Amino acid sequence: MTALLRIGTRGSPLALWQANETKRLLAQAHPVLAADGAIGIVVIKTTGDRIQDRTLAEAGGKGLFTKEIEEALIDRSIDLAVHSMKDVPTFLPEGLGIVTMLAREDPRDALIAGPSVKSLADLPNGAVVGTASLRRGAQLRAKRPDISVVPLRGNVDTRLDKVKHGEVGATFLALAGLKRLGRLGAVSAVLSTEEMLPAVAQGAIGIECRLDDTATRAYLAALDDAPTHIAVTAERGLLERLDGSCRTPIGALAVLMAGDRLRLDGLVVRPDGSGLLATSREGPTAQAEAMGRDAGEELKGRAGPGYFQ
User: Fold this and answer.
1) Could you tell me if residue 196 is inside a domain?
2) Quick check: 47 and 64 in contact, CB under 8 A?
């Protein structure tokens, strides 16, 4: 049969897991989509996947993981796109929107290192840690200036192998991705959010479609997880005010509390680990985006001119 819905995705193991999970949830929510062939998965290679010889910051930013997929949405060769929300730029192309977010997985970072390492403090003096994330590298340098941080790109298995074979002493990966791929056995330590504040929207899966595609939006409405949507809205509000990109080490995490309240923690730090600035907000969930923007404005004001250069 001709697919009723075509899901666009990157081709990494984690991206395919996310696309197939979206397919499963859609089929579960809508019997018409449960038939064989009703939902197709279209793998799209993005610029971010092709560039492996330098960091995203050097290559042009996180939009490199979404550009070609969004172009496929615009030209109607796919109906929806499944993204890791931490890869999605703050501003989307006209006519497109993140209309649904699946329930968030654990947003924390995991440390991957040798068997004797159970915390950041256990890393040997002068250890070489590989990461392509400015956020992780900057927060690590702020706590352990003795550590040598080197660029490390690739999918989950590639990075795990580089630690296993001693090319680097340790690395960091999102705990959410490791859980989804069944690779928790590789984790040396799960870092508290006080040790390593996560990336904006880390652990959240967003689904993007054309805003005028009412049929697809109707299918996707059943999958939206309101608590995740609220928390990510606050975090992306902070990111928007900071004009955040892969060139700016930014961390943020919003957590829902009792009584329809939300706590948001955010920070900025220079890539070398200096000048770390942190803030927090607490308020009603209905003000999630406003809280995020206000926190972002505060950090931007405290940072002052030249901080993000």
Assistant:
1) no
2) yes
**Looking at 36, 49, 75, 87, which residue is catalytic?**
87
Range of the domain at 137: 109-190
Confidence at residue 116, expressed as pLDDT on a 0 to 100 scale? 86
**229 with 124: CB under 8 angstroms?**
no
pLDDT in tens, 17-52: 999 999 999 999 999 999 999 999 999 988 766 665
Q: Angle at the Cα of 197 (from 195 to 203), degrees rounded to 5?
A: 125
User: What's the rounded Cα separation, in Å, for the pair 309 and 54?
Assistant: 19
Q: Are 47 and 67 a contacting pair, CB within 8 Å?
A: yes
81-111 core/surface letters (b: 16 or more CB in 10 A; e: else): bbbbbbbbbbebbeebebbbbbebbebbbbb
Flag whether 81 is in a domain.
yes
pLDDT of res. 155: 84
Share of the chain above pLDDT 70, in %: 93
**Residue ranges of the chain with per-residue pLDDT less than 70:** 1, 48-62, 244-246, 309
- DSSP secondary structure letter of residue 302: H
Give which of 56, 43, 53, 40 is closest to 9, Cα–Cα: 43
- 73 phi and psi, to 5 degrees? -65, -45
Q: Tell me, yes or no, whether 213 and 263 share the same domain.
A: no
* Nearest alpha-carbon partner for 131 in 107, 148, 108: 148
DSSP bridge partners of 7 = 41, 80
Do the Cβ atoms of 203 and 227 come closer than 8 Å? no
Would 144 be classed as within a structural domain? yes
53 is catalytic: no
The CATH number of residue 164's host domain is: 3.40.190.10
Identify whether residues 18 and 60 lie together within a single domain: yes
